[in-house]
Amino acid sequence: MSEFTHFDEQGRARMVDITDKKATSRVAVARSSVIVSENIYKNIVEQKNKKGDVLGVAEIAGIMGTKQTSTLIPMCHPIPISGVSIQFEWNTINTGEYELIIQAEVKTVGSTGVEMEALTAVTTAALTVYDMCKAIDKGIIIGETYLLEKSGGKSGDYKRI
């Protein structure tokens, strides 16, 4: 079982020991998307949602999600977050459908990476958009969520092709 780092010799779950890992600067960028109707798109961009500024609230939710990652993911280490930024971009995908791209960049200086924190950030932001807009149309689709790139740490850099 030694090749599985989240299990001990008896096959029991454990948190990986990072005591001896070198603290380095680490950055992770993740992306998700939300596909919405034209009605929801206009509601968001014209800031007419009764619950408030959808993207403003989603941005805060993404930042808060980043900070809560270790409480949501069982084997995830609590780490000091040195920076989080969330960006939004709209694409027209079909007549009457719009895609909101959500991207998060998370930074730390530590002994483990921030990939999970970046993924949690975009997921939390996407879920917040759904929550704030579901009264208009429940047909919202949360799209693919993935790591776009990461740097730092023993495993080196990664960039999705």
From TrEMBL:
Pathway recorded for this protein: Cofactor biosynthesis; molybdopterin biosynthesis
- Enzyme nomenclature, EC number: 4.6.1.17
Reactions catalysed according to its record: (8S)-3',8-cyclo-7,8-dihydroguanosine 5'-triphosphate = cyclic pyranopterin phosphate + diphosphate
For this UniProt record, give its keywords in alphabetical order, as a comma-separated list: Lyase, Molybdenum cofactor biosynthesis
Active-site residues, as the UniProt record annotates them? D131
Q: Does the keyword Lyase apply?
A: yes
Report the CDD domains cross-referenced here. Answer: MoaC_PE (cd01420)
Q: Which family does it belong to?
A: Belongs to the MoaC family.
SUBUNIT field: Homohexamer; trimer of dimers.
**Name listed for the protein in its UniProt record:** Cyclic pyranopterin monophosphate synthase
